[in-house]
Design goal:
Elements: H1 5-8, H2 13-17, H3 33-36, E1 63-64, E2 103-110, E3 118-125, E4 137-143, E5 156-163, H4 168-171, E6 177-181, E7 184-190, E8 196-204, E9 207-214, H5 220-228, E10 230-238, E11 241-242, E12 251-261, E13 264-273, E14 286-293, E15 303-307, E16 310-314, E17 326-333, E18 336-344, H6 349-357, E19 360-361
Antiparallel strand pairs: 1-19, 2-10, 3-4, 3-12, 4-5, 5-9, 6-7, 7-8, 8-9, 11-19, 12-13, 13-14, 14-18, 15-16, 16-17, 17-18
Biased composition (Polar residues): 288-298
Keywords: Membrane, Transmembrane, Transmembrane helix
Protein name: DUF4367 domain-containing protein
């Protein structure tokens, strides 16, 4: 637990920056910061995200995690309409509209993947902190086995679908080995043997696609076969955790869903505030994560509280990197724990508590995780 908040907070952005495709290809519009910070978060602001574990079969949205019954035992818990009265003095402000979708648009999928790989992560990034414009980014990840905890650990193959700025195609880097992807001009780059390589191409003038491997031994032939099998996917993937409130000036920007099955999924949601400088690493900028899962990586102990009728605790770190982090861990019952972690932009424990109280959890729509 020695990471500072910059290491903890961007499961979407920094994780992908470590994955082979350079910014001048798939993420040319991302700020340089997203490329420099490359360490994954094991926890915390996690990349400021929400994680959740839920039960399959519920058909109505949202179960408000902190109000009343266990989502596993009822379709809608008492008070689950997302209108829980705040228990703190924080100023009310809605989560900015349009930042995160209720369902992840899948957009594209490979119709062939190498034997033994299963899809284990779906991630939607709505906007990068500090980006000039919102250019949505989808990541779908295949692994050899499902992961219950930190989904970003271990070898993987990923499909990246990036909305790019107008004119991207004429200015993109084409220094890799030229390859044909179903009639489109693409590039193959072998960055580190067969275990770190990618293929990238344009599906249309505003959509850049790539298939990459990181730590996974995959031949060039199989990587190209996977890329050439990619087809449009009109499906939607439900977002199981929704932030119902953020402090004024904060934006929810990323959500990832993973897990070992429909009854044991994990979701991550991130949020940020740029502060007065408009730059995520300077001035009063802040970052936040909400995690609902089967366990927590927060420190042990802490002040005992009650949040939304559930037992909770407020751990405090004394090490230098963690002194500024505000933790709140809430026992939701049924083997589920919500952890909210935040820092910066004037964030207080009352704010963190209110974020937890207004977070909605719905178990529906995760059957894609069943193998």
């Amino acid at each position: 637990m020695s990471r500072d908040i910059e290491d903890l907070i961007r499961s979407a952005q920094e994780h992908q920056a470590d994955r082979a495709v350079p910014p001048d290809r798939i993420r040319s519009a991302l700020p340089r910061r997203a490329v420099v910070v490359r360490r994954r978060q094991r926890y915390g602001l996690l990349g400021a995200t929400v994680a959740a574990v839920a039960v399959a079969g519920a058909v109505t949205v949202p179960v408000l995690a902190l109000r009343g019954g266990d989502p596993a035992s009822s379709t809608t818990a008492p008070g689950a309409a997302g209108t829980a009265a705040p228990s703190t003095g924080a100023t009310a402000a809605p989560v900015p509209a349009g930042t995160l979708p209720r369902d992840i648009a899948l957009r594209y999928r490979p119709t062939w993947v190498p034997a033994g790989l299963i899809e284990g992560i779906r991630q939607h990034v709505a906007v990068e902190p500090g980006a000039a414009r919102a250019e949505p980014w989808l990541v779908r990840v295949w692994k050899k086995q499902a992961v219950a905890g930190d989904p970003w650990d271990g070898p993987e193959m990923s499909l990246n679908v990036r909305t790019v700025a107008p004119g991207y195609g004429a200015n993109r880097d084409t220094s890799g080995e030229a390859v044909d992807i179903n009639g489109a001009e693409g590039e193959y780059v072998n960055a580190k043997g067969d275990t770190k390589a990618y293929v990238t191409w344009l599906a249309d003038e505003r959509t850049a696609l790539s298939v990459s491997v990181n730590g996974l031994a995959l031949s060039k032939a199989d990587l190209l076969r996977t890329a050439r099998s990619v087809r449009p996917d009109t499906g939607l993937s439900a977002v199981p955790v929704r932030l119902g409130w953020l402090p004024t000036g904060w934006t929810a920007n990323s959500v990832a869903v993973s897990g070992t099955g429909a009854a044991a999924w994990r979701a991550q949601v991130s949020a940020f505030s740029l502060g007065s400088t408009g730059k995520p690493k300077e001035g009063a900028g802040g970052q936040l994560s909400v995690t609902v899962g089967s366990s927590t990586e927060a420190p042990s102990g802490g002040e005992q509280l009650t949040v939304g009728g559930h037992p909770a605790r407020h751990p405090v770190r004394t090490d230098e990197p963690g002194q500024g982090l505000i933790y709140l861990v809430v026992d939701l019952g049924g083997g589920r724990v919500m952890t909210v972690v935040g820092q910066g932009a004037g964030l207080t424990l009352d704010d963190v508590r209110k974020v937890a109280e207004r977070t909605e959890v719905s178990p529906a729509g995760q059957s894609w995780l069943d193998r």
